[in-house]
Design a protein that fits this description.
It is built from 5 helices and 2 strands, in the order H-H-H-H-E-E-H. By secondary structure, it is mainly alpha-helical. The longest helix has 44 residues. The relative contact order is 0.17.
């Protein structure tokens, strides 16, 4: 049991810190996304001349917001789920079912990590250049010159999957501890843990 708590303690602290920072970045990304969409609406319907980069900029914000908030929502139990069966089963069977579901999620996340990194979104070298997003003030960076590389956008998905894997490992360890009858020694995962990031 001490081994499980020894593994859980640093992972729990790491996830709390990283997800708190990710929450702040995600809120900023959401604000930028909303500002760009509202600006596009204003320019298009009031001035009849919308900039061509606002849509791609909003997508940039949406991808990073999703990649950083999904692990936090997963950790807090914020995803939509049907838990009628879990509630109807005896406590031990319900705990085993939860452990099985977390194991299946881990399998899916590992496949997503491998496929995303190797086949679809090569976040190391990037795939192509943005069609409309450019660095400000004529600044040039990387192989695309003044245009953004697409890997800056799609790295959010790889970061999100990595964070989801870490959260899943934490939840698996917590579930094993609960099944072994030591759940009362676990600290609660409350949204208050992330309030200090505001």
């Amino acid at each position: 049991m001490s081994v499980l708590f020894g593994l859980l303690w640093p992972l729990e602290r790491f996830n709390t810190a990283v997800l708190a920072i990710g929450r702040v970045i995600a809120v900023i990304a959401l604000a930028i996304m909303v500002a760009l969409i509202l600006g596009q609406v204003f320019f298009r319907y009031v001035l009849s001349d919308a900039p061509n980069w606002t849509e791609e900029g909003a997508r940039f914000g949406m991808l990073w917001m999703t990649g950083l908030m999904a692990p936090l929502a997963f950790r807090m139990g914020g995803f939509v789920s049907i838990d009628m069966l879990e509630r109807a089963l005896p406590r031990l069977v319900s705990g085993i079912l939860t452990l099985l579901l977390l194991s299946i999620m881990m399998w899916v996340l590992v496949i997503a990590w491998e496929r995303g990194l190797n086949n679809h979104v090569d976040t190391i070298s990037g795939r192509g250049c943005s069609s409309s997003l450019r660095w400000p003030f004529g600044f040039e960076w990387g192989k695309c010159g003044e245009k953004f590389q697409n890997n800056y956008q799609y790295a959010s998905l790889w970061v999100g999957v990595n964070l989801l894997i870490l959260v899943n490992i934490e939840l698996l360890i917590r579930q094993i501890i609960k099944l072994l009858g030591q759940g009362d020694r676990l600290t609660a995962l409350a949204p208050d843990d992330f309030q200090g990031a505001d």
